[in-house]
Amino acid sequence: MTERITKSMAKNIYYGGGLFALLIFLGLSFDTVQQIPKRSNQINMSESVVAGKALWEKNNCVGCHTLIGEGAYYAPELMNVFQRRGDGHEANFKNYMQGWMAAQPLSEPNRRKMPQFNLNAQEVNSLADFLIWTSKVNANKWPPTIEG
């Protein structure tokens, strides 16, 4: 015995499915908004971090690097550079950043060249603070490897 779907049944399936999808979307959106304050590390954002982010944008660092997986894949991921190059110690990382930024561009063969941005010590510290802050964002274990 075959049963045909009537217009009324099709309309009910369409509206019911649409309503179900809308409710799922709203529930997931609400959950995401609730999770952001816990995961974003926003309470630790200082003026130096904001200044570092402004330098990141002004110098188009995302044109070569990725940060939390977003950006270009030409140069290394920098979300975990604080752990890689500073071993989790802010003073070590800031010293590393001062030396690294001053040494650019490196003249090693077969290495991509990072430009010299001529940043002063305070600007490099702000950029370092931004990268330290970024490393403390809960990004679901991103990047998957320590080298990004």
CATH topology type of the largest domain: Cytochrome Bc1 Complex, Chain D, domain 2
Work out the helix count: 5
Q: H/E order of the elements?
A: HHEEHHH
Count of individual domains: 2
| Radius of gyration, in angstroms, nearest whole number | 23 Å
What is the count of β-strands? 2
What would the principal axes of the Cα set say about the shape? elongated
- CATH homologous superfamily (4th level) name of the largest domain: Cytochrome c-like domain
Characterization of this structure:
The protein is mainly α. It has five helices and two strands; from the N terminus they run H-H-E-E-H-H-H. It has helices at residues 7-39, 47-58, 81-86, 90-102, 121-135, and strands spanning 66-67, 70-71. A two-stranded antiparallel sheet has the order 1-2. The longest helix has 33 residues, at 7-39. It is elongated. The mean pLDDT is 91.
